[in-house]
Backbone:
């Protein structure tokens, strides 16, 4: 197991190197002036000599290998570059925006995965009965509802109409308190608790409910449907019949024997789902003005902010590899027959 | 047990909902202003203040020597200077080459240090030292230095001097717009001691080149702001939000607002709901949603505010034909020849074939003016006697029949009209031109060519785009800022269109002091631009401002920028 994990971790730099090279080469299809757009707010303000000076200053006319090696050298010195989108070094931008996304994902994962598994199992156990039908209709509704529609509906009803759950991460009254609080994690719920600011905590939760519900509603259906079909498949296996014939209760048969095996594909999908969620749900972050890493990455892409794009891609790849590793380890925990050799 | 869960959930929901009802008075948060808009500020260093979000962020905490008087285009009030220089008060020399600004005493920076005349001198010298490419300092350099960038520190040092309690500027030529430049945010005063202490330019001749053309991320003031203004920047999360708190030690009466929150929110629906719920006081509203917000209770929309932006179809003379894919065959019929737009008949015909009124109605819902020439409405020396080219198919036909001795009408043309791919309004303008021309003659073909930003700049600068669509917004409120880009052979657009022959007049206008002579010269330039149909000037949009009705005291701060100034604002139901 330890060898396996070590091998996977050692592979990470190679994956990241390949990825960075790929993105860097793709960028070279753009002209120096197009790439220069990353550094100016309004191209009409660029007079001819300014443009040339800026191209020169940013080394955009240098040979590709010079530009790439310069960039790589910076990376090795812990410098991922400067994100002009948010006027911050890329590493600081990740540190600033990632906790927001992580907070959103952490609270969404609970209803998405646990809720999805529970309802999926329930639907499988009560196949073709009223519960199954209701759950399936809910799942199809959630699955077919585009995130932006769900988000805008949630915003219009719960903020526009009821004024319950406003957009943003906190209210204006709480923002100065947040800035004065000691920031342990950047995750406001945790920081509020650690600082003893329970009014702020309540306010943060109030702002989290609508985006979490939107993310959950859309993602939850996937896990539910997968669990249900996997469970149905497992419940048809011989060893389940054996368990039942031994007189075990249905609850024990389902949750102790069937569920563990049924979870293997669910774990794989959940891993990918979590990894993609950590990359940021752009739509939810935009609609609810929840400035997370997805929002930053989208803005960076829109503005040709190349250091940010590459930094984000590297960060995302690292997360993906880490989550995959975690998934592989979970396989073993859930099903000891699997060996990581 | 189940009832217990239901009860707990109900309590939680009620508790959360109740927090939204806190302070639900008539005026929400009366001492706090919430300003919501899109756009990101790039730095807190004024030498980079060349876009609206950056200017708005800086203008609350840093102050200029003089300021526009409540949005008036050519009236000023002293801020850190006790007087506005004029020839009458002796602070502008008779030859117009020396400007003196007496520095106000008793003003302190937010860190407690007193404002000194050395701070002001340092501010301007530093601006000319750093003078970032693509930044706004070229406007100062144009007036104070022999060229757009300094060749030696001596040039900078001799341009700005201290005389007692006055800062003295020595101009290269008389300038009618120097005060208009000095009132802009990139001329806001920074504190020398703090800047040097943080590692900024130490103010010495030996080091000036180390700081020249510094990119924004390297500036020590990028994240630090110490000013004399009415608000302190309490926190700034780039791209997300800024919080201002009132400067209680401000040299004027302290602001009425205690706090201002500036949020960047790109999603219109979110901004709209915040405005509707009263959680936002001033909101940027896209033009197409103005009707929606006008129907909201408690929301005020001020329309028809002047802007100093002109959009035009530019027509390139002496097109560069080398490997040019935008000119078809390079001959009439299936393309255009290099001298296509050298013909005055063609340019006039095109002007008459463009239905600007239809464009303004379709795209701006009527909220735009149709400029006749290159100086916008509202600008000094604007000539109201010039009538814009009307949409007139008969006159268009007449001119195009005369062009190229009738050959153009016989053979037709295939013309590429380029615009930046992300600009929907430019595309609409290209379509209007297409319709206008193709309806005249079945042999006239217009091809719309969206081009990515960057490539567009390259192609236009190379003189390879036969016709292209773009716009120009005023950097400073003087007609020179329009005649130079539109008519001077090295101007931003005229240089691309290969327009020549007017340089002397344009330069003369830029170097003259205000007065009847200058007025006559600018009327002459506008007449030339009109008679020679240099471009198709089709729209000067108007601006608007949207706020809750409880916001009081608003006026446009800098006429050519859509930014908010929080100092005069307050919130009250009455």
Residues:
């Amino acid at each position: 197991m330890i060898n396996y994990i070590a091998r996977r971790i050692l592979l990470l730099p190679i994956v990241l190197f390949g990825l960075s090279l790929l993105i860097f080469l793709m960028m070279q299809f753009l002209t120096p002036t197009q790439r220069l757009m990353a550094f100016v707010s309004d191209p009409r303000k660029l007079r001819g000599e300014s443009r040339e000076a800026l191209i020169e200053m940013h080394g955009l006319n240098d040979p590709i290998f010079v530009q790439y090696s310069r960039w790589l050298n910076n990376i090795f010195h812990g410098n991922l570059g400067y994100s002009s989108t948010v006027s911050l070094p890329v590493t600081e931008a990740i540190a600033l925006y990632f906790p927001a996304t992580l907070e959103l994902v952490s609270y969404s994962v609970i209803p998405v995965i646990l809720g999805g598994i529970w309802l999926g199992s329930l639907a499988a156990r009560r196949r073709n009965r009223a519960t199954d039908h209701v759950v399936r209709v809910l799942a199809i509704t959630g699955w077919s509802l585009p995130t932006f529609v769900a988000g805008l509906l949630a915003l219009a009803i719960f903020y526009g109409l009821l004024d319950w759950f406003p957009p943003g991460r906190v209210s204006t009254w709480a923002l100065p308190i947040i800035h004065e609080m000691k920031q342990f994690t950047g995750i406001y719920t945790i920081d509020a608790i650690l600082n003893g600011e329970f009014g702020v905590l309540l306010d943060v939760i109030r702002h989290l409910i609508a985006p979490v519900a939107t993310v959950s509603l859309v993602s939850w259906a996937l896990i539910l449907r997968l669990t249900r079909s996997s469970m149905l498949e497992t419940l048809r296996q011989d060893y389940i019949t054996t368990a039942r014939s031994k007189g075990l209760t249905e609850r024990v048969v389902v949750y102790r024997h069937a569920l563990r095996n049924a979870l293997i594909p669910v774990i794989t999908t959940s891993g990918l789902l979590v990894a993609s969620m950590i990359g940021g749900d752009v739509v939810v972050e935009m609609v609810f003005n929840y400035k997370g890493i997805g929002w930053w990455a989208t803005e960076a892409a829109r503005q040709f902010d190349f250091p940010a794009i590459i930094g984000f891609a590297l960060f995302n790849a690292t997360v993906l590899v880490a989550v995959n590793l975690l998934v592989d380890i979970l396989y073993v925990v859930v099903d000891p027959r699997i060996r990581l050799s | 047990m189940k009832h217990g869960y239901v009860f707990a959930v109900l309590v939680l929901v009620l508790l959360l909902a109740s927090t939204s009802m806190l302070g639900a008075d008539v005026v929400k948060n009366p001492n706090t202003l919430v300003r919501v808009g899109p756009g990101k500020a790039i730095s807190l260093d004024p030498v980079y203040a060349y876009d609206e979000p950056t200017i708005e962020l800086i203008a609350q905490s840093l102050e200029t020597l003089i300021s526009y008087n409540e949005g008036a285009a050519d009236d000023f009030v002293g801020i850190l200077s006790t007087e506005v220089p004029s020839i009458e008060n002796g602070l502008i020399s008779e030859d117009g080459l020396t400007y003196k600004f007496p520095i106000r005493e008793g003003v302190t920076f937010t860190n407690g240090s007193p404002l000194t005349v050395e701070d002001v001198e340092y501010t301007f010298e530093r601006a000319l030292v750093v003078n970032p490419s693509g930044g706004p300092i070229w406007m100062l350099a144009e007036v104070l230095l022999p060229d757009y960038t300094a060749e030696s520190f001596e040039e900078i040092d001799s341009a700005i001097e201290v005389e007692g309690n006055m800062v003295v500027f020595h101009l290269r030529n008389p300038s009618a717009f120097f005060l208009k430049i000095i009132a802009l945010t990139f001329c806001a005063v920074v504190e020398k001691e703090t800047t040097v202490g943080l590692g900024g330019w130490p103010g010495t001749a030996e080091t000036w080149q180390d700081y020249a053309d510094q990119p924004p991320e390297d500036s020590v003031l990028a994240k630090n702001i110490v000013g004399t203004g009415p608000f302190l920047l309490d926190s700034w999360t780039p791209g997300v939000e800024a919080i201002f708190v009132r400067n209680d030690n401000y040299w004027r009466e302290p602001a009425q607002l205690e706090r201002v929150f500036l949020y960047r929110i790109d999603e219109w629906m979110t901004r709209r709901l915040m405005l509707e719920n009263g959680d936002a006081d001033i909101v940027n509203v896209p033009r197409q949603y103005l009707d929606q917000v006008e129907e909201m209770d408690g929301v005020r929309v001020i329309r028809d505010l002047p802007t100093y932006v002109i959009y035009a179809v530019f027509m390139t003379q002496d097109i560069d034909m080398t490997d040019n894919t935008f000119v078809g065959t390079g001959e009439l019929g299936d393309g255009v020849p290099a001298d296509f737009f050298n013909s005055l008949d063609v340019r006039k015909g095109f002007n008459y074939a463009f239905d600007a009124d239809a464009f303004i109605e379709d795209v701006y819902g009527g909220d735009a003016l149709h400029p006749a020439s290159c100086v916008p409405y509202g600008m000094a020396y604007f000539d109201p006697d010039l009538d814009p080219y009307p949409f007139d198919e008969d006159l268009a036909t007449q001119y195009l029949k005369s062009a190229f001795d009738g050959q153009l009408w016989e053979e037709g043309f295939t013309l590429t009209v380029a615009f930046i791919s992300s600009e929907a309004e430019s595309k609409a303008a290209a379509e209007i031109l297409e319709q206008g021309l193709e309806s005249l003659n079945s042999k006239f073909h217009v091809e719309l060519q969206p081009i990515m930003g960057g490539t567009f700049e390259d192609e236009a600068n190379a003189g390879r785009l036969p016709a292209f669509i773009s716009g120009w917004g005023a950097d400073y409120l003087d007609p020179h800022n329009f005649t130079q880009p539109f008519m001077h052979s090295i101007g931003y657009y005229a240089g691309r269109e290969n327009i020549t022959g007017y340089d002397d007049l344009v330069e003369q206008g830029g170097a003259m002091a205000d007065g009847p002579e200058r007025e006559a010269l600018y009327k002459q330039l506008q007449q030339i631009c009109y008679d020679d149909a240099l471009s198709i000037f089709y729209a000067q949009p108007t601006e608007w401002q949207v706020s809750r009705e409880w916001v009081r005291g608003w006026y446009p701060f800098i006429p050519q920028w859509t930014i908010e100034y929080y100092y005069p604002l307050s919130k009250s139901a009455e």
About this structure: The first strand of chain B starts at residue 32 and ends at 37. The two ends of chain B are 53 Å apart (CA to CA). Residues 20-25 of chain B have pLDDT under 50 and may be disordered. Chain B is about 30% helix and 20% strand.
